[in-house]
Amino acid sequence: MEKIVNKEAEESKREYWNTFSSFYEDTAELVTLQSSMMLYSITQSRNKSRICEVANGCGLAIRMFVGQLMKEGAYMFTSDISDLMNEIFVKRFGEADFAKNEKVKLTSLEETESVDVNKLVSDLGDGVTKKVFNIRASNESLPYPDACFDLYISSLSMMIVDNHHNQLSEAYRVLEEGGTAGFTVWGRKENSSFFTFFPKVCKEAGIELDTPARTNFHLGVDKEALVADVKKAGFKSAKAYYTQINPNFGSPEDYFKFYVGAPGFAPAYEKLNDEEKTKLKETFDIKFEEEFGLESETGTEWEILVVLATK
Ligand SMILES: C[S@@+](CC[C@H](N)C(=O)[O-])C[C@H]1O[C@@H](n2cnc3c(N)ncnc32)[C@H](O)[C@@H]1O
């Protein structure tokens, strides 16, 4: 079946994620690290030599991977649709201790539809033993040749792309026979109080939030259906696991700052008048204390769905 990519939808995702790149680094990246570490662990990433990671975000997890898990002699291509995510990725990589080691090199590539992976890797020579490349690209149309990777990683991006079937078919295409893919997506709403808490508070404070046409739970809701999609893309095996990751921002103030700045809520919050903002904060403080305060034995929970697949 021919792959059709909605370029307009991609452009708006790029803008959206550009807007939230710094915020993401300040607040979310330490939480989503849990998802990335799960993927690096279950995919046996330290034994792989030709790695593709998509939707790199600001890159905290990838820096940890390169520093501690990446095999000597391995190469890794990373990509994100957002220019500003990639900008932060490159800046932070350059600031990392390992960047002072001349055996580790990050190359930032110009956007192109066709990357000559073998040439780029061999041009760096044998002196560089950890070769990392970064490029602006969509998960739905990767610029790499067929079958050039033994590992493909996608942490918390497949539920965001416009068409996840395109992402799956690209993951399949760029992997060699026997290659491993690891994906995480949001899990089920009922097990993700981290995301359901704030809409509940808004409702109680009498604040209407826009209902998105599709929420980030849309793939995690049905594990079997997602596994069927992975197999339909050609993968010969796929296993899926629900698991919790546990966000903790510490103080209620930091939670509030996160919620009102988060991509899903910030636009609605900005439209509120001062009175509505005060009412929202007061309601939030009461509800937070009730559900997650010092007396409570429950923290905020976020369920993810992990998929491990073999080509
Ligand atoms: C929730 S963040 C995950 C980032 C990182 N993988 C992590 O686990 O922290 C989603 C990322 O997907 C990127 N993204 C959104 N749509 C994309 C697409 N179609 N292709 C590539 N990246 C995309 C965003 O720019 C953002 O960096």
Secondary structure elements and their pairing?
Blueprint: H1 7-19, H2 21-42, E1 50-54, H3 60-69, E2 74-80, H4 83-95, E3 104-108, H5 117-123, E4 130-136, E5 149-155, H6 164-174, E6 175-186, H7 193-204, H8 223-232, E7 237-245, H9 252-261, H10 266-270, H11 274-292, E8 302-310
Parallel strand pairs: 1-2, 1-5, 2-4, 3-4, 5-6
Antiparallel strand pairs: 6-8, 7-8
Domain Methyltransferase type: 135-180
GO molecular function: S-adenosylmethionine-dependent methyltransferase activity
Organism: Euplotes crassus
Overview of the molecule:
InterPro entries: Methyltransf_11, SAM-dependent_MTases_sf. It comes from Euplotes crassus. This is Methyltransferase type 11 domain-containing protein. Helix 5 links the parallel strand 3 (104-108) and strand 4. Strands 3-4-2-1-5-6-8-7 form an eight-stranded mixed β-sheet, sandwiched between helices. The longest helix is centred in the N-terminal third of the chain and has 22 residues, at 21-42. With 311 residues, the protein is an alpha/beta fold. It has a single domain (7-188, 212-246, 300-310), classed as Vaccinia Virus protein VP39 (Rossmann fold, 3-Layer(aba) Sandwich). It has eleven helices and eight strands. It is globular, with a radius of gyration of 20 Å. It has helices at 7-19, 21-42, 60-69, 83-95, 117-123, 164-174, 193-204, 223-232, 252-261, 266-270, 274-292; strands at residues 50-54, 74-80, 104-108, 130-136, 149-155, 175-186, 237-245, 302-310. S-adenosylmethionine binds at residues 10, 13, 17, 29, 32, 35-36, 54-55, 57, 80-82, 85, 138-140, 155-157, 160-161. S-adenosylmethionine binds next to helix 1 and helix 2.
